[in-house]
Automatic annotation (TrEMBL):
GO cellular component, one term: membrane
Keyword tags: Membrane, Transmembrane, Transmembrane helix
Cross-referenced PANTHER family: EAMA DOMAIN-CONTAINING PROTEIN, INNER MEMBRANE TRANSPORTER
Compartments reported by the entry: Membrane
Name the record gives this protein: EamA domain-containing protein
Entry's family note: Belongs to the EamA transporter family.
Mode of membrane association: Multi-pass membrane protein
Domain (EamA): residue spans on this chain: 3-134, 150-285
Transmembrane segments: 28-50, 62-80, 86-111, 118-136, 148-169, 176-199, 211-236, 243-261, 267-286
Primary location: membrane
Length: 304
């Protein structure tokens, strides 16, 4: 059962990066993200009801969840969707694998948590991996080039996700229940996206093609609900730190899928970059107090 849960998490969250590609087209990113998390919030709420978990929370908890939803389930995902217009899904997943490193640095800055030397070493190793992978775009940085634009957008999305993690840690400390809180935060994320759609003057449209609808259902139900449920179940069976190592395999799965479905070619630079990026994560995740808190509040860092 543990192997099944672990494999489900890695395969689902590793494949959601490619599924996002099928959401790109005539439908604006904000609209697609809105549909996704409105559907996911309803499914998660039904799951909570079936498990007998109340969705009634205090006003203060709703305020915190609204902030979490705007960061984690709106701004973060909108930037991820946009980044995939410029980069292959596997490369966006690789950049997003730096999330645990962002978490530890922001926790030191915003939550006044200690910043151990192990975390600093992990951050340096992980960032080195991304620099190796994107070295040609970095040395020839130009916002007129798609690689440079995609890199900036993906890093921005990772930063917003990390800020969302900081809010999630505070929510956990204030006793916000995980599953009901996630369902409500997803609903607020969908609402935030809807507000952005109105402000920008976009239209609430939907692509009725089979690839769009199937990918939307997959992202909402499997990527946002089923995988999250598997992750929480695995936490209870093998512990937070061991379950968190799923974040090391997710980018590998995403890059393999990108190779076969998007034609992305592996090379020596990507291999070395991936080795450093995942090595930095491994160093950071080892016996990390922050990871214990964060994993109890939000899903694994490699989720899309």
């Amino acid at each position: 059962m543990n192997i099944f849960l672990y494999a489900s998490i890695v395969l689902v969250w590793g494949s959601t990066w490619l599924a996002i590609k099928f959401q790109l087209g005539d439908v604006p990113a904000s609209v697609s993200v809105c549909w996704r998390f409105a559907l996911a919030a309803m499914a998660m709420a039904l799951w909570c009801t079936a498990r007998g978990q109340s969705l009634r929370l205090s006003r203060g908890q709703h305020a915190r969840l609204a902030l979490l939803g705007s960061l984690m389930f709106c701004g973060n995902y909108e930037l991820v969707y946009e980044a995939e217009r410029y980069l292959t899904s596997g490369l966006v997943a690789l950049i997003f694998s730096l999330l645990p490193l962002f978490n530890i640095v922001l926790a030191a800055l915003l939550l006044r948590r200690p910043l151990p030397m192990r975390a600093l070493l992990g951050a340096c190793v992980g960032v080195t991996g991304v620099v190796i992978t994107f070295w040609p775009d970095i040395v020839a940085f130009d916002l007129a080039k798609t690689g440079s634009v995609g890199l900036v957008i993906a890093v921005g999305g990772t930063l917003l996700a990390s800020l969302g993690n900081m809010v999630a840690i505070r929510n956990s400390e204030h006793g916000v229940p995980v599953l009901p809180g996630t369902a409500i935060a997803m609903a607020y994320g969908a609402l935030c996206c809807a507000v952005l759609v109105v402000i920008r003057g976009d239209r609430f449209v939907i692509d009725l093609s089979t690839p769009y609808l199937l990918s939307l259902a997959y992202l909402a139900l499997f990527g946002s609900v089923v995988a999250f449920g598997c992750y929480l179940t695995l936490l209870g069976r093998i512990g937070i730190e061991r379950a968190a190592y799923s974040a090391l395999l997710i980018p590998i799965v995403a890059l393999i899928i990108s190779h076969f479905f998007e034609g992305y070619e592996w090379g020596a630079r990507l291999s070395f970059g991936l080795l450093f990026a995942l090595g930095g994560n491994a160093i950071t995740l080892m016996k990390s107090p922050l990871r214990k808190r964060a994993a109890a509040a939000v899903p694994a860092g490699g989720a899309a």
